[in-house]
Amino acid sequence: MHPRTIVITGASSGFGRGLAQRLAERGDNLVLVARRKALVEDMAAEHRNAIAVHADVGNPDEVEKVAAAALARFPRIDAWVNNAGVAALGRFEDVPLRDHQQVLRTNLGGALNGSHVAMRHFRRMGSGTLVNVASMLGRTPAPYYASYCASKYGIVGLCASLRQELALDRAERIRVCAVLPMAADTPFYEHAANYTGRSLQPFPITDPWQVVEALVDAVDNPRDEIVVGLPAKAAMASQQFMPWLTEGATAAVSQQLQMEDAPPADPTGGNLHSPLQAGTGVEGQARARMAAERRVRRS
């Protein structure tokens, strides 16, 4: 069996970097995609069967170049993981409209662009696995995440529609999987645009490696949706049977933690319009930062 070739967008940190590490360890061919050119080039240099592609997934022409680079090096693409994501957090009208638009362009537009290129290739080859990283915020909304929620709801809907088309064509060897994690301690919160006026307080926050393992599982054993972790599964069930209670409780807790208890913070546009040098690991600083903030409040 030939080594599989897997495209990973958003590969320079967080889930994408962790997935690249896991797949490289077992010898898969990797196409590592990110805006941070030097980072993915360094990652590719560490692995004999990896290439780096500098691209903004919100630009469809650049995503076409990702596929061209992959097929220039490897015979086919077996799986495509749309993982790149950004966020602009704050009261809806306090977030600049261009920032909301950039969230949609990167998250939903990036998934749409990557899915379009991948599905055309999979149709030609007769098989393949498309993995789109959504979020539990694509099922259970939260205040102050308006455009992020919109993008993730869109990804869940995109996956569902693609699965219907494949079923109608009896294309059983092409799979589309949506992965729905909760908040995880990756550099995501170091990169996010923040207009709340407060330090970001994600909850409940999970280990990013749990999500990485779910992504490996999605590549190997794709299912329609993979909900990651017990808190996410509980939230899914609660949203299904008691949406009014779930949304009310989420709003109240978000308001208390994010807008009332959190320490002040200056506004930032994060990495929306240009990449940041900070935050290059799989894990981030959110848990350590929030623990330090709690110690300060108690003192």
Kindly describe this structure.
This protein has 299 residues and is of the alpha/beta class. The protein has a single domain (5-298), classed as Rossmann fold, CATH 3.40.50. It is built from ten helices and nine strands. The protein has helices at 14-25, 37-45, 60-73, 97-125, 146-168, 188-191, 208-220, 230-241, 243-261, 286-298; strands at 5-9, 29-34, 50-54, 79-82, 88-89, 128-133, 174-180, 193-194, 225-227. The strands form two sheets. It has a seven-stranded parallel sheet, with helices on both faces. A two-stranded parallel ribbon has the order 5-8. Strand 1 (5-9), helix 1 and strand 2 form a beta-alpha-beta unit. The longest helix is centred in the middle third of the chain and has 29 residues, at 97-125. The chain is globular, with a radius of gyration of 19 Å. The N and C termini lie far apart (60 Å). The mean pLDDT is 96.
Summarize this, please?
This protein has helices spanning 14-25, 37-45, 60-73, 97-125, 146-168, 188-191, 208-220, 230-241, 243-261, 286-298; strands spanning 5-9, 29-34, 50-54, 79-82, 88-89, 128-133, 174-180, 193-194, 225-227.
Characteristic key phrases:
Rossmann fold, two-stranded parallel ribbon
Helix content: 40-55%
Distance between the termini: 60 Å
The fraction of residues in strands falls at 5-15%
Task: Give the overall pLDDT as a whole number.
Answer: 96
Low-confidence stretches: none
Instruction: State the CATH class.
Output: Alpha Beta
Large-scale geometry:
globular
CATH superfamily: NAD(P)-binding Rossmann-like Domain
What is the radius of gyration? 19 Å
SSE pattern: EHEHEHEEHEHEHEHEHHH
Number of domain units: 1
Give the class from helix and strand content and strand pairing.
alpha/beta
